[in-house]
Fold this protein.
Amino acid sequence: MRVMSPARRWWRIARVRALEGAPRARSRYAEERGSTLPLVFGFALLALAVVLVVVSASSLYLERKRLLDLADGAALNAADAWAISDAVADAGGVRVEAEHRAMREAAEEYLAQIGPTDVALVAVESRDGTSATVRLRGVWRAPVSSGLLPIEVEVEVESTARSVFHVPTEPG
């Protein structure tokens, strides 16, 4: 009679049971069914939506900054649209009051030189004659259009510039 070690005996019993179709020990996750594919697909869709929103928000910010730069340049041009005949002397010194028509023409000329076709000059105002306030309007279009993001948004910016006129004093 041959003596069998306990480990060998255990392996032989396990093999016989497996061959006979004896029920195996079940893991605690054996009854769960499903797939991770819908979860992965959902997270990929969420990540894509976040990327689209960030890209669109960045594009809108850059469009607003571009319009603000144009408005700054047009306001500077409009504020400097005065002639020496526009100078007015008063008790506080000499100041310049430019005509509204000249300010508007200077702003339009600046925008024509720069050449943006999608920008409209809304208003050119001067509250005190020495400063010019220019308001521009443009249309922003989303880089990637979808149901989540609007296709077009109107953007309006305003910039103010002031013309300073100094008369040198004579050394006495």
